[in-house]
Amino acid sequence: MYVQQKYIDLFNDEAKGKAFVQEVWDKGYCVLFDFLTPETKAEFDAFLADRTQCNKKNEQLNGTIAQKLATSDEMMKILNTIHRHRASIEGVPFVPLTVEKQSWGFPYKDARGGAKTEQTHFHYDAAYTNTLIPFVLPPAESGEGHLIAYPNLKRRIKNRFLYGIVSRMVRDIPFTRKFYPGVSIPYTVGGFHFFFGDISFHGVLPIKKGERLVMTINSHW
C-alpha cells in the first residue's frame, strides 16, 4: 500500500470524493496532508537522498518508487475518481485515465551556497489531473518554493482571446504580477497537492535559500 488508508477510504466514498473535487473546482486546489504511508515516504526519502535522481522524469525513472506510485492501482483509482467527478460537474462524458498517459518526475531547485535558480515559467498543462507531492522545501521563513497559481483562469475569463492576453502578460511581464499576484498554494512535505492545470495558469518563482524537490504526477490526454 502506497497511500494512507484514510485517503483511499475518502475517495471510495462517493460524497466525500465529490466534495473534494468541488473544492478544487471552486477554489482552484485542495491539499491532503501526510498522503503517503510512512513506509512509502521513507522509501522516497531514501531514493531521493541521491540527488542525481532529481530533474528526471518518466522513462528515466522506470522501475523506481516514482513509477510504482504514479502507475499504482491506488493512484489510478484516486485520479480516475477525481476525473469522473469533474466530468460530472462539467456535464461531459467521462473517459477513464490510463496508465499509458501517466507522467511523473522530480522538478528540483537548489539554491544552496548562493546558487542561482530559475523560474518555472507560468503555463497550462495538457492534462486532466495534476498532483504534486513535496519532499524537500526551502526554509519556511523564506516563504519560497510554493506554487503560484491563477486558479481556474480559463473558467473565469470565458473569452479565449482575453485569457490568452492575460496569461501572456503574467508569463512574460513580471510587473504584471505586482498588481495581479495570483494565489500562493502553500506546500507541506508529504502532502497531496491537487489542481487542474489545464484551466489554472501556474508557475514557480526562483528560490534563494535551500532546496525545493517535489514529485509531479500528471494524467495527460
State which percent range the strand residues make up. Answer: 15-25%
Broad structural category? alpha+beta
Q: What is the residue-mean pLDDT, rounded to a whole number? A: 95
> How do the SSEs run, as a string of H and E?
HHEHHHEEEEEHHHEEEE
User: Helicity range of the residues?
Assistant: 25-40%
Count of alpha and pi helical runs: 8
Keywords:
221 residues; alpha+beta; Jelly Rolls; 6-stranded antiparallel beta sheet; 4-stranded antiparallel beta sheet; 8 helices; 35% helix
Task: Produce a short descriptive summary.
This protein is an alpha+beta fold.
Q: Would you write up a description of this structure?
A:
With 221 residues, the protein is an alpha+beta fold. The protein has one domain (5-220): q2cbj1_9rhob like domain (Jelly Rolls). The chain is 35% helix and 22% strand. Strands 1, 2, 3, 5, 8 and 10 form a six-stranded antiparallel sheet that branches. Strands 4-9-6-7 form a four-stranded antiparallel sheet, with helices on one face. It is globular, with a radius of gyration of 17 Å.
Write the layout of secondary structure elements.
Layout: H1 5-12, H2 14-27, E1 30-32, H3 38-48, H4 65-70, H5 73-90, E2 102-105, E3 108-110, E4 120-123, E5 127-136, E6 147-150, H6 153-156, H7 160-172, H8 176-179, E7 183-185, E8 192-195, E9 201-204, E10 211-220
Antiparallel strand pairs: 1-8, 2-10, 3-10, 4-9, 5-8, 5-10, 6-7, 6-9
